[in-house]
Structure formats: C-alpha cells, structure tokens
C-alpha cells in the first residue's frame, strides 16, 4: 500500500520510493498539511504544526477563546477565500446572495487502487498496481459547496498528482472566480530558491533562480497558452542545490492554457506554493448539481539534487503521460521543407527533396505551411483545409504515392485553431472567431483565433482535418499555433459566462486532439506554437513530441534545450539540424555540431538536402545511422546535465546512460575557443562504479572503472575553433 490512514490520529501518509507526503484531519475538521519530503521512517509529522496567539490573525468562531488557532498561520491543504487565511487561496466562490466566504471542513475520504479519471482533461495515467488514489471530500456546511481533493500516488515513479473537483450542492448557482489545483505549505520556508523558466519566441525556457523572499514570486501566463514567456513547470529547492545535491520539489501543470504558479513567504516565514488556472479573466458559473474539475498538477521530490528530480519527471512523462503507439515506437528521422522552400514549392520540388533524403537514411518528408487554400504567404488561407492543386498537381494522394514509392513517409502541417481574414471559412462564419461585439479585433500574424469553445467549430475542424488525413497515407501531423488569444468573447455564450472562454477554449482543443488521435492512431502528432510556446505536460498527453523552438541555431539551442530538460524528457524535444548561415541568427556552425545538438531530441533536418555537398551528404548518412543505433539510449536512457550555461559559458556537455548502466553517450560542444586555454575535464555520471568501461577520445583509447571516470573525469582534447564538438561512447566490458 502506498496510501495509509491512521484513524486514531487522523493522519494520511502517501509514500513513494523516495518521498513521503503527510496531512491530517485537524481540529474542527480542517485538513492540515504536515509534511512533504524524504521518507520519515514511519513517524507521523504532526509535531511540525505549531500554534501561537498572533495579532491580526483571526480565529474560527467555534475555536472559542483559543486565540492560537488561526487558519492564517496553520498549514492547509486547500485554503479557501474568506476563511480568515490572508495568504493566497485556492478557491473563491461567490454565492447567490453575493457573499464569498467558504469554510471547508473534512467530510469523508476513500482509498482505492487505480487512477481517478479527470473528465475532458489530460492527466497522468496508470492501472491497478501502478497507482493508488486517495480522495478527500471537504465541504462547507452552510452553502453546500464541496471539494473532492484527489491524490494519485505513482509509487515507483516518485510522482504524486493532485487535482480538485468542485461540486455545487447548494441548490442555487455559484460563481467560481478562483480555483487552483494545488496548494502546498512549508512550516519553515527560509533558505529556499524558486526556479522558473522564462523566455520569448525563439528563446524559451531559460532557467532563473530567485531566492525566496517575503511576499510572492510568480510565474504565469494570461495569453491563452502556456506561452514562450513563462512555463508551467517550477522548482523549489534549498539554496545551493545543484545537479547532485539538495532537496528539490518540482511542480508540473498538466494544462496548456492560462496558469499561475507562485511561491509566497509569509510574515512568520511559512512558505506556500500554489499552482492552477490563472484567475485573471476566469469566472465559472456552476449551476446547482454541477461540478468543475481542475487540471492536474504533478509533484515530485528529490533529496539528491536537480538531476534526479528531472530524471524522475522524464520517466513519468514518457511512461505515464504520453500515450498511443508512438509512446514507445522509434520516431522517424524527418526532413522538413520549411527553411528549404518556405511557401515557394510544388510537388516536384518536394519529391526532389524526398529523393535526395531517401538515399541518406532519412525516413520522412514533412510538408510544412503553404499546401492548402489560397496560401502564398502568411496572410491568407488559414481555415481552408483543402489541397491547393496548383502546387500539388494531382492532389495530396498523388504526392504521397510518389514519396512512399521512395521508401519515405509523408507528414503535413496544420494550424487548426486559427483563421485568416482572407479565407472562405472567415467569409462564411465571421462569428466563429474570438472577438468582442462592435470591435474589429486585434490581428496577429494577419490572423484571428477560432472560438474553440464552440462545438460547431470543433466539429468543422475534425471533419476538415479528417478528410485530409483520410485522403492519403499521412504519417505525421505538425500542429501549430502562431498567435495568442485576444478579444476573448464568444458569440455563442451568454454574458454571464464569458469568463469561461479561456478554459472552454482549452477543453475544445483537447476534445479535437482526442478525437483526431483516436481516429488516426497510427499518425504521429507533434505539438507546436511558434516553436515552444505551448511546451507543457498537457500537450504531451496528446502529442508525444513538441517542436522545442523556432530558433534552430545550434548554439542557441544549447540553452533552450538545457532549460527544457529540467521538466521534460528528451523524447519530447523536437529538434532539427538546419541550414547555415542560420536563418534566425546568421551564425555559421559546423555540420557535425548542428547534428549533435539536434540529436538531444527527436532529430531531423530542416534544409534543402539537394544543396548539400557530397561530403555533407556522407555526414548525413553517418548521422542517421548513428542516431538509429543510439535511439533507445538517447530517447529512453537517463539524462545528465554535465554543465550549465551559467557556470560553463565556454562549453556545454550532457550525457545519456542506459537503464542497465552498461552504455553511456557523452556529448560535448566547445562554444568559445580560447588562446592558451586551461585543460578541460568532464565528469560523467550514472555509471556502475565497479564496472569497467572502454571508450575513445580523439583516437586515444581508455579502459577505466566507472568510479575512476566519475571521480577523476575524462581529459578533453583542445578543439580548435568555435562551436566544435565531439561524442564519447562508453561501453562496459
């Protein structure tokens, strides 16, 4: 059993391999958080909860004259607005009489094997024997509002997921203006750092560490997407924690829309972490008898530093979040025509790229933007998902047959959630866009956002995309989203429910993805939003890989992929070798270095293969063979960040280790050449200390124990010139 309830003390204990989570039914029925961290050795942690008479911290009426009992100072599991707790709340409800006090107390609980299902939302999955669930029901006796807190314990993966279901049992409508998924209280909040991942389009997920201070540190998005600017994955760690040392807590939001994730240190140095749907622009009408389910938050603890925290998230995401045949199947090496042709292509030009690629070990051609409707630039055609037969003479089926005849698969690009003003769809259904009455709206990239909260819009897109996918042997779909939400108003919802659109939009996107992936289970779907603008756990439930960034510059990608690796597995990272000079930065980087960086992901090419020199084509043959040989190690092995951009600006290194620790692949990129440079040593990790490993570095052969390699390091050769790279393959003998 991973979940235990001690009836005498009212304490719940949730256990994983390397962590423990405790809470109790406290005095007056309030559910109090006790502890989250390493295994406590069988001890209950109630002694951590302390009380004192604090000025200006009120007391529940039925606490009598006990001024030490205050929800403003006690640790809680799901704090509600109006209860006397002045810290950030998880729930704010406005009742029919206009009041907004909610007093949640324990009502019941149940423990069962298997996973609680979240209706219409992505979530981690697992069967009986793999996951156990605890559901605790809290309720407000006066209003009838109840909250079912769900805790799912994946003991072997060291993951606990949390969500909440709010049910209106009051008999009258209730407005929910704030509803988070998770709140986590730490009695002693001093000495921590809060790690967030900020960015912009074409430079996403940069690690930023901030010492926890009194007040709040918040990462959030109100863009209608998880966004390039902030990511819904955060880490709380003790100050000075590094890859191998320190207590670390990770929170990953299984959601792709607006979010908020904060760390609040209060007046008495207690710390509250919270995560959920951003309350800005959110208001949900909950009619009598109706329920609202929050998205899921995945929690993970590591007492062995940031590296182990990441590896635990990687395993859980690969095995218990991603689904379908492509979860475990090797992904094809592809070539995307975008940077090779942009909009200027026809069927012959595409087939020429496929002919060249098929001789080099590449397995799939992806036809990007420009194949449909009136689409010669990014100002028209979105929404008209019909083949442009002036470009693709003979239609999509003919192109697919020609590509398949070369032994290649064919993939295709869509941007389902958007519509161009210059399109047949917009002219027929102008009311299908998000736009406030009487306003022309905000254009971005010359396009509007379709109202995905509408069932008729979702039905249209499912039918239109299904017709395309059924018309040819399509093997892959790149699902893009190239602007964020503005003018968030739906012509189909009444005035009192306009605050529901952001969330209903995401539910519509999820419904469409669920229907399409179910109807076309053999198609590999890749998520994208101008690159990494919607790189989150919610999308991984439907698309097992996501285009990491529109920035394909290998040196910039070192930083982008470094930050991404903290919360997301390598198998999810869409990465391609692109043309030089790079189209985003103008940088010229060696061909082998571009390949090595792209191999820390799904691997593919984004250039005109036909323009490569004979020497470069031979390198492509070697690269594709190398990646296929090492795919299982790269995609399913343990990932180690051997350096970070802040500490080592002159070089970057990372490592993949097989689950049995018999093989390892060390990757190294020298970023800046230096005159008379000091010697460099790399310190691989994850090897068997007593195992003996053979490897070669620049023609020098070694046979050393794992302990010697990890403790003494590997002397690195001095590489001449910027952006040079090498790989080291370690094999246990």
Q: How does this structure look, described?
A:
With 733 residues, this protein is α+β, with helices and mostly antiparallel strands. The protein is built from twelve helices and 39 strands. Strands 6, 7, 8, 9, 11, 12, 14, 15, 19 and 20 form a ten-stranded antiparallel sheet that branches. A nine-stranded parallel sheet has the order 29-28-27-26-23-22-21-31-30. Strands 5, 10, 13, 16, 17 and 18 form a six-stranded antiparallel sheet that branches. Strand 33 (651-657) and strand 34 form a beta hairpin. Helix 6 (455-470) packs parallel to helix 7 and helix 9 runs parallel beside helix 10. The mean pLDDT is 97.
Characteristics:
733 residues; globular; 9-stranded parallel sheet; alpha+beta; single chain; 10-stranded antiparallel sheet
Q: Would you report the number of β strands?
A: 39
The termini sit apart by 40 Å
Beta-strand residue fraction: 25-35%
Question: On the 0-100 scale, what is the average pLDDT?
Answer: 97
Number of helical runs? 12
Characterize the largest beta sheet: strand count, sense, and whether it forms a barrel: 10 strands, antiparallel
Helical percentage: 10-25%
Low-confidence stretches: none
**Which term fits the overall shape?**
globular
Radius of gyration: 27 Å
Q: What structural class results from the helix and strand content?
A: alpha+beta
